[in-house]
Design a protein that fits this description.
The protein has 214 residues and is mainly α. The protein is 63% helix and 0% strand. The chain has a single domain, classed as Orthogonal Bundle (Glycolipid transfer protein, GLTP). It binds ligand 1PZ. This is Ceramide-1-phosphate transfer protein.
């Protein structure tokens, strides 16, 4: 199979999420952001119709990268150290977004919710029939996750954009993991790591009652 010109391969994204996990069950920030940057490259390869999505995600990734290159970088080494630091320093607002619009905790929470969608979407894709519609898998996983946090206008725009998604096999080939069958195998192997990252983060946020940060 011909190499894609941009050298994109979903394998690196999945490897990054695997690399987030430490023996202490913490989540490392740098590979987490690397995984997200890879996802955005993939999203951009699907066409400009998803620009409004990637723009928002990029803004959030950049907020976190800024913390990682600031004087406080060590505080943001893992999601756990970030939560501890921001809570102890009064950098998180539990009620009003305006007070801490760029807190790491609220920013990561948005990406975390999107990771739930991604996990369900890729699992749906992996276990679907060859003639399944990507747009249906995508809409179903979106409605079951992220849509609950989005206002009507965003839900509408997202659902419209999903109609532009390529067919299941073209989508799998776009991941550059080999044939659709090989891509499905790879997803089966790698998705448990994405799920683990999601679970650990969910537990962390639940423990600190931060699942609804404004
Ligand atoms: C393969 C098809 C890709 C479809 C992507 C599915 C997600 C649709 C989400 C549309 C959201 C876009 C607009 C911005 C919404 C923001 O208001 C919210 C909340 O942030 P706040 O306003 O509170 O600061 N942002 C989000 O929910 C984060 C969304 C990130 C989505 C990243 C998707 C990555 C896709 C990877 C594709 C392989």
């Amino acid at each position: 199979m011909a190499e894609r010109q941009d050298g994109f391969c979903l394998r690196e994204v999945l490897a990054a999420f695997r690399a987030c996990l430490t023996a202490e069950q913490t989540v490392l920030m740098d590979p987490y952001l690397r995984g997200w940057n890879g996802l955005i490259r993939f999203l951009n390869s699907l066409g400009t119709i998803f620009s409004f999505v990637s723009k928002d995600a990029v803004t959030k990734i950049q907020i976190m990268e800024k913390y990682r290159s600031s004087d406080q970088r060590e505080r943001y080494e893992t999601l756990q150290t970030m939560v501890e630091y921001e809570l102890a320093s009064g950098l998180v607002s539990l009620k009003n977004r305006g007070e801490c619009p760029e807190s790491g905790c609220r920013t990561i929470l948005r990406l975390h919710r999107a990771l739930h969608w991604l996990q369900m979407f890729l699992e749906g894709l992996r276990t679907s029939q060859e003639d399944s519609k990507t747009s249906v898998i995508c809409t179903d996983s979106y409605n079951a996750s992220l849509a609950n946090y989005h206002p009507w206008v965003i839900r509408k725009a997202a659902t419209l954009a999903f109609c532009a998604l390529p067919t299941r096999n073209a989508f799998l080939e776009n991941m550059n993991l080999g044939t659709p069958e090989e891509a499905v195998d790879m997803l089966g192997e790698a998705l448990p790591y994405v799920c683990k990252v999601y679970e650990i983060t969910e537990e962390l946020y639940a423990k600190h009652k931060m699942l609804d940060l404004p």
